[in-house]
């Protein structure tokens, strides 16, 4: 078997990505504050660290602290020199083609975001500007397929799930693939990988031309959630909110598998949008599903939603237990409704412009102690606003558990403090306790200390 | 979940297969003796019966006795009307694309073999003629890829293997696919399906263009071994010997997974050829492999080979236990030797003309009682001849267990009678007993009665 | 500028044509009576002699009598060694790609016709058999495009026409190409080349994918009418009648430009078929057209047809003078009628099975003195039969003027003798005299001696 | 025949260009000062006015003053409504596909230039910035083909040349195409169209995949020089200097056919660059060629160059008369030197970064009376500076003859005044007089009044 080790290699770009200017190469090599080197190195490491079981950014960065990437500045084309790269990206010393592609898409996106978007879209509101930036990044990454009927299913769920749950995501992916649906996930293992594997087999049987396995990531999460090389369109959005917006504007329906707090956060994001009055009539299939034995996760989430936002919110999703075929059949019906609506309203198939995403959901949320303390987890505000507040609370908790700056902030300053209505706070606590009980939190369950403290106000 | 049921559907051909003449359509509709209808119906049923667990032709034919296929004679193109077809071939009422392709490749091959080959190749010996017919069938099916470096790995093994063995074949297929090898199997489930599934995932990661999953079948076996829809090149050879010749002339290396008597038969076929003096210097990688826990199968086979044909025969193969990575690395080395040899000897990459296949291995063996009784299982003949005799003995036993006419002959006339040297007969008996003990025979193990009787002469 | 000279070169096949068996290579090398060498050499020479002004087979063969073609028998693929090949096929020593393709299509067709067709189609009448053989040759050459709406326009006309006429054929080809029609001609210069050149420019403007420039030839005519390298599908039919049948079954409409006796012969062939009672309702656009100044040719032909077969025959065609745009618009309308009819009658788009071609038009006509003498150029027989007889008369005259055996027969035995009704014979004589006057016969006009003698009976 | 008329039509975009944001659509519809409507309308009109004989922008604009283009704002994709569009862009009421592509490339380029480039390339000098902007526009238009060996031949020359000259450009294009070279011109008829037509025929014969016919244009010139629909990559650069820079950085060699003052201007541009000391060792094939009978043009230019810049400048080009084959053979040799140099110096194949283009050649030159008066046409400055000054002088003269603002300025303020050394001024006058004598100026030769006046200083 293979011994884990490090590999040095030179990697040349794909032809379509091999037209950098010397100016761009210089920016990628620039180790100064405004330069892209550090971000580029971190993202490349994540891409190379495929199949890794490490789910903490810090652990990954630490393990491969000797990793370096040098951009040989050749006019004939750039060449990446990889030093002490993770061996898992290579087969017999040669880089896996899918990973090679990922390296250069990272480069493409980092350069594009840095260079060309800062001044875009004069005359628009900030919210419109963000929507346009997401659009432009996706278009620049050739992620738009105009005139293709709605068929892109977003799969969310935990990256660290049980074997049976993982196998279930493969079966759902297989049923989706049999119906020629494309798959979009957030990159990483678990529920982000299983549906793609299942769909790959089904697409082969259906001889699907150009099947799409889209991975949407962002620099803060990529290190802990390496894209699976099956992903054949990797787009690195600049922050988590733009990544979420990309999911809901590019995707035509969403399936949520069991996960942890991060998955619950995504559910709240989606619910908050769908609950907004402007989106009331826009069809958007949203299915929660898992295998027999995993019912508890969605029961927990369902109870939390009903208790906090209210029972009407539950009309926006459907829970299906242990029936991949049913999931796919329901998704097909949902996508047909999406198609009909887009035709009727002259909406494009490739980007859901009509969907209103409140500004609250677009603003990057920096989950530091101050921001967490200022969250307003109270009733008496529109339900979509409450959903946004709850999502941020969960977002902060995920950060405190997984993301480097969050973990460090907790170590330094102690747990976040959250305030709100008593019953909402109680529901939140129950939700998180249930996640711990269900081993849904990426933590040492025995000596788990929550990264938050509920301060009932 | 899906209830098993029957489906009626109209299927139009792929464009490339949609140029039949009225004369050809008439032949496919012809239910008379010389007509193709019955053969065509049987093969189509097999193709449609994908994923079936039934491994007896008779059971399949019986279950779908109401199945019918009508060829609507339209000048604009043929159309197949399927009546009472197995539901497993359909998704939401629409035929799986891979199966649609298979239907029309069957049609292509049956027409070609019937029509154009009878008079071919005047001036050649019978052996050369058979080799040329196999070549022409493969070429007509576009299965030749000139100038592509040797990369086609044939996988043999049982279609009814244990879960762990099946998973192992997927892992091996994955490692082969990571190295961009194409896969060729005999169609059906088990060891014929696993490597293709594994390779499909790896090929997706490697972005392999036009990956090949070749299935070679023949009318007598197809009903019990439905091609997996992943198979994207299905070729139906006219008989089992031409199918075997297609494997060894088209493939560049062979991996054998655990199986039963049929697999042992294929091993003997291959060994017989490689042992022929004319083939002495032709490199042909041959690897037997299985997961931990399945060592017994190859130990049994290895012991049998050494005891009957002799220890030198064991130099022609390598046994690797529980190491998919090693299997792939060894196969890569083997294929490089094949490449070097073909370059050196000006042999084509797409068809192994040089390999000498003795006439004994090409003649269809009709495993009836008389033919079985006439087998000469004795020492004192060239080792490759003995291998041929042993293969036929096993072939008859597989027929008696699985194939319709064989099973019926046994029911009618009692077990086959085999004669030969005492120790060879003993080895054969031990081999088959071990297979029964290892549950390697597709039989009711509790009330198993062998379909053969050893008559030591 | 280039000095005319000879080139030696090695040419490797296109991949799709590089799967010959050793047996097939041997046949191509076989210089014995039944072998293909002589035919293959002659056809290859013709293909290489592109752009030649020599329009006599004998002159071509004589000029390149040192030409030889050797087939290097390599297992890895055949290789053609060209010795003393015409320099016009090469650019800076490298063969023009289109010509390289032609060489291997010739090889493909000669092998196919020789090998696989002799025994085909048992149970059919001779006429049906011929139709099926033409179908199979075209299918084997991948010339069928099922499901593509009728868009293949056959262009007939002289290969040795005036500059203004040639430019006019380009303009018509351009207008056809603007409407995305594909072009099919008989190979060679003049009216066979112009429409393709014009269409090439228009197809480029229309971004037509896979434009088709089909050349149908046969061994007897190819040497004098080298295919233009623009031809991207060259099919070599075994004789002139099968070539004509290929034109009318594959093509969807026909445009006839000015030519000579050969063109008139093709017109009679087509008219004879369209006049057959069984074909009465089958739409088949047939347009005669030429530039201002060339009206005389079609006036002559039109007069001849009305005088011999009768005025009703003139309803089958339309004459358009000097209006490429009108020709294309009329052809478009005609093809729409063809499409409607094929839909209505369930006829395929790719092969006109319904068209009845009387056996008289299918039988190869060997234009020797005896056969010419036996022609019955009299009234009192069905008009399509008379058309067939007149066509043969013209066919013999073309042979006597252009084709090697015909020319030699005339030299040896004197002119052919033709007999028939006085007024028909007179019309024929007037037709041919007018062709001589219009310089439409490929002869030395000053000392022209007709190769036929009219014996009024 | 077709009567010239106007057409109304709806045109949908190509898929790859159909992902506009509502914000972008709004900009194209914006008729205000900063909006793109007027520019877009003018460019679209030019694109539609294909094959026009009108070579004055004003005449074009006047003839089609009723032309309008409306952008239907549909989310599903934009749709262009063309009102009173030139009929020459349509075949039987359907727009020619190549022209449809051109419309949307114009849209693509206008949006890109307007939106994303203003703020690019911080930290670079102005000259570097211009070079990077040209690079980015070309890259955004997918005009880069990394790793393709240098094969792009730029053809310059007059758009209004004699028939024999036009035919000659076709022959040269044919010889270039036979060698698989791609063609890049400045759009329009004459020498910009002929080489593409010739190459199209040759590329068809050579079966060249994806032949490139690149047209580089700019808003000021496009109306008078409609792109030929053969152009399959149209890029609209923002001004004439960036268009010239695009020619020399994208192209690998240049052929100049006879033209007028504009052609002489391009020659001076190229010479000025090649004469710069930094470019001394960079190979750049530059061939002037024309048919027999057109020698005078290059003799005139050659004499002018030697007399003004000096005889050494003549070493940078080669004049070949009436020998298309020789032109192509010399170009092939030149391109091989380019390839060798780029390999040796690690220069990309797709963009000539190394070539130093002095800032003088990059700055847009506004040929108004003041700027023309300030030109310094004197000796005593580096030869490349003098070349730049002379080019501007010619540029102004071309503008005064052809371009709308220039013509109007002349009408208003009288001829431009030019000053410089006596002998240089004399040479310039002789050059222009010779052009008038040779009918090389797009003017009414009988009552020609020069748009400049030489003020010897």
TrEMBL record, chains A, B, C, D:
Ranges annotated as spanning the membrane: none
Q: What is its EC number?
A: 3.2.2.4
Name all Pyrimidine/purine nucleotide 5'-monophosphate nucleosidase C-terminal domain ranges. 336-455
A UniProt-annotated Pfam family: Lysine_decarbox
Q: Name one GO molecular function term.
A: AMP nucleosidase activity
- Which species? Neptunomonas concharum
**What's an example GO cellular component term for this entry?**
cytosol
Matching entries from SUPFAM superfamilies are given as: MCP/YpsA-like
Q: Which residues form the Pyrimidine/purine nucleotide 5'-monophosphate nucleosidase N-terminal domain?
A: 10-116
The entry's protein name is: AMP nucleosidase
Q: Which reaction does it catalyse?
A: AMP + H2O = D-ribose 5-phosphate + adenine
